[in-house]
């Protein structure tokens, strides 16, 4: 797979292929200032693995564990499921920190940006490295909020495995589906952790069912909870038929006992566990022929005789094949169930080697990340995650290569492996290995520096921020000359604003947040145009005749067709100029100046006077398209958001009435224990500031998740109102 081309080893000469995820510059700057041969130990950090005091003991063995003992994993989930809390426990039990961080107190290791600590949410992924029972685990905590989807995507493609954390009282939630689909796309083996088993309303059965139904995954129940809600006290290990009980008096969860289930002391629980184990064996045998042969041959009479290791090996195979997902449970907040989760990460998730990485690459300077601290390392073997510094022109999603030929060879191989049908003609495109899919921004607003003199500083800050986060787009409004920020949501833009202030020392002013509309046309229209200009002693003359017509592509990329007489002998440079002209014209629709989607452009005839520059060809085509678009019947498309609101019964009717006023359509209302889950669609323009409204309506008891569904045609009345407000007419 393309995304696997990221394995590298250090040499001082070559830098072949390495994927780039740009880190927050300020994070990097501050840690580089502190960079020493040893890692400075900050808040409650234990010695880093293998580092005793200030000595680097056998750094090589610390840095380069055998590849089979490496696990590169991500933690992913819906917002607030408890990823950061779980990560904090993991770091504590692995000895990486000496005290438990708490998101609610704002002192976690991985949420180290000021905004993360203040808001108690994860915005940027953080990487930490720790050891667990002889394994090296590189772990990335990813954000759950939909505004930061790109951040999740950029992490997923460099991971070998993932832990999906769920709120056991809510099961699969909207954003879980999104990240699950992303993990499917990158073929990442997963383990599910049903967190918050201590919470009122937690239901193991319900959460497992929702994994089966909503994620269409096959859950393998490796554990059963001992009690739910306030009664939750531990878990049963189904594979080993053992009971794990946490000492209720231990305040950090380190103290727990693991005892075999015995007929004498736990007859009921033993029976239940045996049934669960038998069901698990049957389920795995169904998915794995090798295991089926073993079970049916030697152990068909009595599954109890099947050794736990044999079952674990088979579970590992189906997990790696992604035909099923192991499910564990616990309560990160109450310090229960995290150690067995770590065991499961080492036992069931793949080492980098098992993900078919074949590339051994090189780079000049490497740093090993420990959240906001880094240690410079001399070398690194394949399968590890590290940072490199000093790259001035790269952006998140780029691939670094030592030479064009090595990148082309890698791209060719990856294309064959990925079974890609379409051949990429464009060399630059082929060089781009596995770029992340950048979602289209749905909001925009103007941003002003404190003074004109500070505009270059603002431009610089925005340039740096965009390199880290390509889902942030910045453009210049040609009419007003203002800088415009385009982002994924209100929170996204707010965080960018805040970061410019904190990290670049610039107090900026944001204009009102506006929805990013799109436009389309309803009928086919032809137009012709001629551009005749003499510059110096050179005459530039182009005549073009073309047609714009509606097509259903749900994309802002116009479909381009050429009449046979045009495509014949059309030089590549002229074709590129035509296409540039078409694309630039379609970026600014005639109604609101928004991008035009769902259009095809057919170029019927083209006459180019010898010596005409490509810029003039682009300009003529662009003008001709604008002309055609203006003549067509036009339609505004607005972003329609998929909304999921979780609300208690008492507030259901209030929330529904409010949604009706917001032009919302309700798809279904489900019951989940005491809660109602409303799913439906609402235009983005109607849902701005919804968190405050919902909080007020439901006294803070409801939660919601929003995700872009598609762009929908506005009805004629709403469109007239919108255009009237913008001072425009149809
Ligand atoms: N009852 C209960 N609450 C928990 C548990 N784990 C986390 N929480 C709480 O849930 C809230 C969210 O926890 P986080 O760890 O920040 O969740 P997250 O998934 O990292 O959230 P984002 O980073 O914003 O995506 C916090 O108030 C935690 O204290 C748990 O096991 N039980």
UniProtKB/TrEMBL annotation:
HAMAP family, alphabetized: mEF_G_2 (MF_03059)
Species the sequence originates in: Panthera leo (Lion)
Keywords, sorted A to Z: GTP-binding, Mitochondrion, Nucleotide-binding, Protein biosynthesis
GO BP term, example: mitochondrial translation
Reaction(s) this enzyme catalyzes, per UniProt: GTP + H2O = GDP + phosphate + H(+)
Gene: GFM2
Keyword Repeat set for record: no
InterPro entries associated with the record: EFG2, EFG_II, EFG_III, EFG_III/V, EFG_V, EFG_V-like, G_TR_CS, P-loop_NTPase
Domain of life: Eukaryota
Residues given in the record as GTP binding sites: 77-84, 141-145, 195-198
Name of this chain's protein: Ribosome-releasing factor 2, mitochondrial
Record's subcellular location: Mitochondrion
Family assignment from sequence similarity: Belongs to the TRAFAC class translation factor GTPase superfamily. Classic translation factor GTPase family. EF-G/EF-2 subfamily.
